[in-house]
Design goal:
202 residues; 3 strands
């Protein structure tokens, strides 16, 4: 009788185990990359070099990235176009900050045209910066390519000496022939603050 009871308990236990639902499969989520390429339709989960996101690179004080879509003109052409876009971005950063700094200087000193941004527009200053040979000589630091879309990325950067020369030329262009005022600005704390701000790479 005891054996029969044991067999009944064993059979009931086996039946319960057989009816139990299997555990759901464990879904392992792929780690989210710290930096990813942001072109294409998504999901944006393709890891990218950190400089693509930070626009910072060792050995330079100011850097900018540029990109260009996949082209049948070839990879060298894509890199050339991405480099041009990165240099345009550098020019906009420098000219915008210079214009803002000069506007503050004029307002604080009560100099001629006080309250105006500069003697010429920021867009005009940007074009003058782009024409400077120093900017054209900014180094392509490295490059990358999105394996999903073929988009080419580059980062270009300025060393401290090249940046100082560009800030000088940009400020001079912004004063549009006001040589005496330009020299006073160069001697001001505002000029030093402008160079320091740009050298921070922000």
């Amino acid at each position: 009788m005891k054996n029969v009871s044991k067999y009944l308990v064993l059979a009931a236990t086996t039946a319960l185990i057989g009816c139990a639902k299997p555990a759901p499969p464990v879904v392992v989520q792929a780690p989210v990359p710290v930096c990813s390429f942001q072109d294409g339709q998504g999901p944006y989960d393709t890891p990218a070099p950190m400089w693509v996101c930070s626009e910072q690179f060792p050995g330079v004080v100011l850097a900018a990235t540029g990109s260009f879509q996949n082209s049948n003109m070839g990879y060298d052409f894509m890199v050339e176009m991405a480099t041009s876009r990165a240099r345009q971005k550098l020019a906009r950063i420098i000219s915008t900050k210079a214009s803002s700094s000069i506007k503050d200087y004029r307002a604080s000193t009560g100099s001629q045209s006080a309250g105006n941004e500069t003697g010429i527009s920021t867009a005009e200053i940007t074009q003058k910066v782009l024409s400077q040979s120093d900017l054209a000589g900014s180094r392509v630091l490295t490059k990358a390519r999105n394996p999903k879309t073929g988009m080419a990325y580059v980062i270009v950067g300025l060393t401290p000496d090249i940046l100082d020369g560009l800030v000088d030329d940009t400020a001079k262009a912004a004063f549009a022939g006001e040589e005496a005022e330009f020299q006073r600005f160069k001697a001001s704390q505002g000029f030093d603050a402008l160079k320091a701000d740009l050298a921070d790479g922000q």
